[in-house]
Amino acid sequence: MRLIQCLFLVVPLFLSACGGGKDNGAVAEERPEGQISGTAFDGLIIGGTVEVYEFTDATKGQLLATGETNATGQYSINLSVPSQPVLIEIYDGYYIEESSGIQVEVDRSLGHKIYAVENYVSGSNLEVSATFFTTIATGLAEYYVNEYGYTAEIAIEKAYREVDAWAGFDVRATVPVDVSRIINNTPYRTNSHDYGFVAAGISLLSLEVGNAIGSDAHDEFPSIGFISMSYEDAKFDGVPNGQGSTGQLSFGGLAINSNTYRELLSKRMMQFVVSNRNKTGLDFDDMLPFASTINSYSGDLFSNVEAPNITEIEPTVSQLIPSEGEVIAGTYVFSVLADDPFGIESIDYYVGDQFVGSASSEDTSENVNTFNFENGNYEIRAEVTNFLGNTTTVTHMVTIYNGELSLSLPDEWVRARMESDEADNNFPVSCDIPIRVSDTTGQGVHFLRVNGATILYNDPISDGSKTVTYLHPWMSNSCTSYAVEAEDRFGTFFYLQFRVGQSTSGSGSCHIQIGQCGGGFPRPF
Fold it and tell me: What is the chain's alpha carbon radius of gyration, rounded to the nearest angstrom?
């Protein structure tokens, strides 16, 4: 019996030695082969180095395997390791910025990397995208382990729960698409397109940061730089809020805070949606719900702090031309200086209540023909509407004065008639009456009539003044009334009325009395 008992004691000791202990020189147990695959995306990262590390204590441990992304940004790495948390790190290679179309190198010497973490099960095939969202999740997982003592496995799942809630989809399993490529045109919105618009929004944000300091497009401040910074932000205090180990984080001249990741990012996403770089066919209305999701999330990830409601944003109008109190004439160019984070859909101009034209954000100017209005004071207004349907209205009071036509009898002619009247009463039996047309509109006359007879028609009055004559016939002892009527090219009428008196004085002669019958200068009445 003692022999049998001894055998039972020996057998367990032998199996323990076969378990793969590292200190006794025994051969380790062979692990089943598995695979980690996915897509590296800040735009598709092509030719990038992919490294998989142990992540047991939420720190970068032993290198387990390496690989490379292909021409579509995909990677696939075989593993024969125990079940454990793993860190996926991607650097080098290049991608295309969605907002500019510029190729950018992923430069690890600048700290430019994308991360993902995952709980790998030995022998399994695991798919995980490596993106902006998974990079933030990696930083969060490190923070949860270091701050709260969570295991890496628990920290990873908690981090992804937070980030998934913010994004509104599974950021590990969803594969983003490049929304600047026509191949991804779609009749309906998908999670993959949402994912792609986040990357495009970051691309546009980084483009604007570079432009603001005069840097070449995506040279000093590519989107991969923003993503790498977000990792440092999240791992410092578990909140993407612009606080890092060195203090306040900034990206170029942009000071980072929690609304950089929500309000500003959602605005830049929507600006990209309405730009010509968007090739998906999805429009503003299609993507606004997702942008609102990114903006409005206020869970633990953002310390439960509310973000501004982006759907209430109205355009900003900083200038309207014509300016307040200005006198305008002819064809006048109306314009505004306007800005809106989501883009301007329309600009409408009015004079009084009359609509006079529309413009766009690319060219806010509109030529307005003020000759369509009588001279006078008017309220002009610009109604600027953004893609949310919110409108900002700006008004000014202006004076429209296009000059006018005037009709008169030349003073020198009137004086000559009076002097002759006083000196000598013998005059011809008939005379020409000069009628002066003065035009300060620069548009000329449509017609001019004297007692119903047209003597000018569509005349430009090119020199600003023109004198025409009308034959006053001899009429013995008569008093003749004259009505002169002129119409400008915009339908405004102008009038002059006067009378000419005449009487005989000697054989074959007449006496002309200027003015109303009975004497006096001719004058309108």
Answer: 43
